[in-house]
Amino acid sequence: MADRVAVMRAGRLEQCAAPAELYARPATAFVAEFVGTMSRIPGVLDAERTTVAVLGRRLPVDGDPGEGDDVDVLVRPEAVRLAADDMGDARVVATAFLGAVTRVTVRLADGTDVKADLRTHEAAVLAPGSAVTVTLPDRPVLVAARRR
Questions:
Q1: Ranges of residues in the chain whose predicted pLDDT is under 70
Q2: For the chain, does the N or the C end have fewer beta carbons within 10 angstroms?
Q3: Residue 26 belongs to what domain range?
């Protein structure tokens, strides 16, 4: 791996940075999805366009939110937290054992699939069909135009 990586799209430079920075702080939605797995969760920007309502919470927006109030919040699987909850509004639809980590795919009430990477021993109680609550950490999130 190089010290710096350039990500281009249609002949235009999207971002040039260290690999870890590209992964952790992508400049655009394209870079975020090009460098690793991302889930897109529907959200709504506030009037000032500085925070976004997502999963029943309001989180700060990282970067330029672009046009429109309805957006997708982009999150990496390791940032998603799941808790078994009989009253949860999401359901586990699949699990994939990856060694020390298990990737759990949950479906939100609106039909959106979200991937979460959990320690395998934590994921063991989340069988397909289990009800869960999905949360995100209190930190700025990248948003992008909502996909139709």
A1: 1, 148
A2: C
A3: 1-36
